[in-house]
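Progress narrative, work stream C.
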Amino acid sequence: MKIGVLGLFTGLALSCQVALAADYIFRDLMANTLPPTACATEKEAVAKAIQPYTISRFSKRFCQSQGYGWHLEAVKDKGRLVCQDCTALDYGKKKCFVADIVVSCKRIKPGSVGLLPGQG
């Protein structure tokens, strides 16, 4: 009896085809991080500009700026470091940022996971 019930549930589970995958829309973006407001020595400015936290934070912002539902998929290119000299009052100090970061963003394709009644 127990084997029959187990076989029935197994048969039902295998016959039900549930779509678990969603379709996504992908978009690649290129953008720059913002330079800091304060000047620092070149070593400190470079270290702050290329730290992983800064890159990941700005990468998420790039995707979120595309609108509702956009999320970061991957960072394709970490870009290049750019340093600028500060004013004459802060002689020898610099502001550094990362330019040309390429990220891949994704969003669920509308209607692919049952967003429309009776479909999906």
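Work stream C, second folded protein:
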Amino acid sequence: MADDEDFIRFMQVAREDHEFHKRLTFVLSQDNFNRQSLLNTWIADLDLQNAPMELRRILTYLLDEEVAGTALRLLEE
């Protein structure tokens, strides 16, 4: 996953877009249960909106506690 270009692009956008950064940081700052709950809701909403599959796939990466922690650290740099 570390070399996944979509994930790298996702993190770049999250660092550059203030509102997206704010939302993602909030979600990733939650405890494991609440982070997963918020992400699952977000993914379900994106499914209803027929959002790009890549975005939904990347958000599923963040269900993993280790990946979420790494992503949060990257956002906080």
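Residues 32-48 form the longest helix (17 residues). No further action is required on this item.
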